Fold this sequence. Notes:
The chain is mainly α and 183 residues long.
Amino acid sequence: MLDLVREHGIGTLTAGLVCERAGVSKRHFYEEYDNLDGLAAEVLDSSLSAVSARIAAAPYEPSDGTDDGFIAASVEAILATFDDARIAKLYLEAAGNRGLRDTKDRAVTTFVDSILEALTGSSSPDPRATLTAHLLIAGASEVVAKWLDGDIALSRRDVAACLVAIGSDGARRISSGDFGSMS
Length: 183
């Protein structure tokens, strides 16, 4: 399916085209999936789950008082996934497809929960930590989509460096509980 997404985009795909490429009948397709959105969502979910697994396996050792290594490993896991142009295109087209958008939103929630658990060790962190984590993850998601779409004219290395710098600052705030004051 990913090759078809790269060639045609998600909007023009049909179950017939997917079945033809896969060499299966439409009946077989509909026994497995309710519709094409279901297959697309499963493919995106599988890709994002692999990212989540790579992040979970990243060493988190804030012994030096920083979270830079963990954040750098997380950013690299995300960008490496999108080095596959097929996955990048599927991700970019998520905004226009309800099933993909829901999958992307669930992935953001999973990443937020993972970062909060890693940085706070708590299943009910400070709401400001939750806000910061959502801002980091959802914001990074939007930035990566803009960069993949060519709207941000930076190299991969520069995008990664910016995301790591901002992410590390946010991670330090989450870890320390220092969110500033509104005075």
